[in-house]
Every structure is written in structure tokens, then in C-alpha cells.
Amino acid sequence: MFGVAVLGYGVVGSGVVEVIDKNFDRVAQSAAREIRVKYIVDLRDFPDSIYKELFVKDFAIIEADPEVRVVVETIGGVGAAYEFTRRSLLAGKSVVTSNKELVATRGWELLQIAKEKDVNYLFEASVGGGIPILRPITQCLAANRINEIYGILNGTTNYILTSMIKHGASFEDALKQAQANGYAEQNPTSDIEGIDACRKICILADLCFGRNMDPDWVKTVGISAVTPVDIHYADGAGYKIKLLGRAVSLQDGTKATAYVAPHLVREDNLLASVDGVMNGIVVRGNAIGDVMFYGAGAGKLPTASAVVADIIDAAKHDGARKYIGWDEGSRDTFFDSALLESRWYIRAQVTAAVARSAFGDVQILGGTDGETAFITSSMGKNTLDSTLESVTALTVFRVLG
Ligand code: HSE
């Protein structure tokens, strides 16, 4: 038997069990062998589950069972998830996960263990939910030097922004709905403050640039400062507000940076029409040019789709390790994203005349007696900050492109 153990029976874990069960024949055909869930590990009881016979509470059972070839880690976080992943790899089992926090923070180390033990650590579902993105980067785009990746990487915040922009929903109501749909993290602060997107852009940077990028280095701003007033000004000028993660490498590949922040995106940019829980990711390769990946970025079955595909891949490569990995990074190969120039959207307590005198050539988006919204010419963050010393800014976002 090619046995699978699922650790954590939450939104994604239960989706994985469901997809393997419902698509049993299709999965068997793809993997060229039958794949069965042998155990589900969760500390909670599920007496009404149709899979109740599969539940165990002791991870040691999985560790000791040679029929378990793949462990699916859908616990989340870096505590038990790290410990069980490590032990599974050391026990000679491949591990498949959707856990972006663990991959972004300890992925390098876990990949080393996988390499030593000749097993696979696969994490397609950790970025972009159901969107195939990591495998295309490492395989289909392998001939390219990639210098930039950016996009909408968090379904919850995109769902909230879309609900606010298109349906006039309040932030709180939109968040509640995202939670009810199973998009949000257990602690939705990770979504709202951009932390989840930060982990994902780091994983993308690791794979695209070939060096570890630590989430702690990456300046991260979420959507809590986005107000209906900003949405209104942006809309009037033909822009949508989107939370983007972006990673950029120097042309010679010696250094790279990344950041997460809300951006004004022009309506004619494809990313502006990536709405709801959808994610959109642009990869810029030196042979292919820009290529965009689009699809459901969160949710039970889309994420399970990516996890089960990795299980199939692990089954096909049982005893034949896949070469996924990157070098150990350091701060010496990271540069401050403040150096990246862009135009800036500013809403400030100034008149249009004062905005012009401080920033020169600006595009005025609108205003009232007390404030003006405008877009500056292109400049780095340090120049922006020094100019802002003479202006009381209420909101500042980057403008894409
Ligand atoms: N909370 C995440 C999101 C789940 O909303 O994108 C998928 O990683």
C-alpha cells in the first residue's frame, strides 16, 4: 500500500482526505498506483466523520509505520508542524505541505534533511493556493533568469478589498465572510497585516533567485490603512487598490529584495481584475518575458488540489528525489526595498498647491477643503520620506508601474 498520513484535519487537511477519496481512480491513474489515506492525526475528536476509523492522536504510530510513504502536514505554524515534518523526513518519508510559514522560515533546513534522506519535501500549495506556480517556476521556466516576481498573494485580503471596492462592504463584514469561506488564517492578523503574503513572496524569491530570503528582512505593510476614501480617489482616477508582494533581483543576480504593501494598480493592468479570493502572480523571465498565473489562492478544495498533486508527485518519485532547493542566504545578498523607485499615492492634509510645491509634478486625484489625494513622480522611499517631512500624510501607497 502507498499510504498517506494527514496531520491536522482543518480546512486543508479535510479537503485533502476528501479529494483523495472522491478522485480515487483519477489519483491512482496519475500516480500509477493506488494512494490511500491510512491515518489522520488530530488531537480533536471527529465521532461523526465518515473517516472516523482513520483518526489517531499519536504521531509515533505514523513514524513507525513503513506503509506510510507520504506525510501531509496541514497543521500550520512552526511548532508541532516543524517537529513532525523533521521526524517524518528523518524516518524516510516524503512530506507534502501547504504550510507557508514553515517553508518560508525553515524550508531551507528541511530541504537539507530531505536531501540527506533521499526523500521529497514538496509545498506547491504554500503559494497561490490551487494555482500551479512553484512547479512551473522550477520546471517550465527553468531556462530563464528571473529578475522579478510580483502579484496578489493573499486571498483573504483580496476578498476584503474586492468586497469593499465593488460592493461597498465594510472591512469587518468582508473579513467575517472570508473567515466563513475558510480563506483566512486561524489568526487573520497574518492575512490583514501582510505577513502571509510576506511568507509567500519569500518562498517565490527563494526559488526564483536561488537563495534563502528571510521573512524578517522583508518590509511588510498590510491593508489596515486602506480606507473607503482612498478607494474612492483611486477609483476616480482609474486605479484599483491591491495588496501586492514583490521581489526584485539586481540584473547581475548578486542581491535581491522583497516587500509587501498596498498598491494602486491601473484598471488596464491584468492584476486589477484579479478579484475576490483569486490570486494573480507575474513572473518576469529573461527569455519568456512576463508570464502570469491566475486562480483560486485559498479555500479548501483548491488548496487540497495542489497538495494532492504533490502527493502524486511524491508517489511517482518514491525513492527518486526531486531536486528542489536553494542556497543559504544572508543579509549581504539582500538590499533595502526603499531603494526601489516608484510613483506614490499620497492623501495628505494639504491643498493641491502645497502638494505641488512640495512634490513638483503631481497628478491630483481629488480633494476636499482639508485634504488632497495625489500621485507623485517616481522616487525612492528615502526621497519620499524626506519630502513628506513638510506634509501631513494620511495615507501613502506605492503605484504599480
Ligand atoms: N489565508 C491564506 C489566504 C490562505 O487568504 O491567502 C491561503 O494561503
Domains, number = 3
Amino-to-carboxy terminus distance: 52 Å
Order of helices and strands: EHHEEHEHEHEHEHHHHEHEEEEHEHEEHE
Q: What is the alpha-carbon Rg in Å? A: 22 Å
Largest sheet: 10 strands, mixed
Counting DSSP E segments of at least 2 residues, the number of strands comes to 16
CATH superfamily label of the largest domain:
Dihydrodipicolinate Reductase, domain 2
Q: Helicity level, as a percent range?
A: 25-40%
Mass-distribution shape: elongated
Percentage of β-strand residues: 15-25%
CATH architecture of the largest domain: 2-Layer Sandwich
**Count of helical segments?**
14
List all distinct small molecules, including ions and cofactors, that are bound in this structure. L-homoserine
What name does the CATH topology of the largest domain carry?
Dihydrodipicolinate Reductase, domain 2
Word description of this protein:
The chain is α/β, with parallel strands linked by helices. The protein folds into 3 domains: 146 residues, NAD(P)-binding Rossmann-like Domain (Rossmann fold); 163 residues, Dihydrodipicolinate Reductase, domain 2; 60 residues, Alpha-Beta Plaits (2-Layer Sandwich), CATH 3.30.70. The chain is 36% helix and 24% strand. It has 14 helices and 16 strands. The strands form 2 sheets. Strands 7, 8, 9, 10, 11, 12, 13, 14, 15 and 16 form a 10-stranded mixed beta sheet that branches. Strand 5, helix 5 and strand 6 form a beta-alpha-beta unit. Helix 1 crosses helix 12, helix 4 packs parallel to helix 5 and helix 5 packs parallel to helix 10. The longest helix has 18 residues. The N and C termini lie far apart (52 Å). L-homoserine binds next to helix 7.
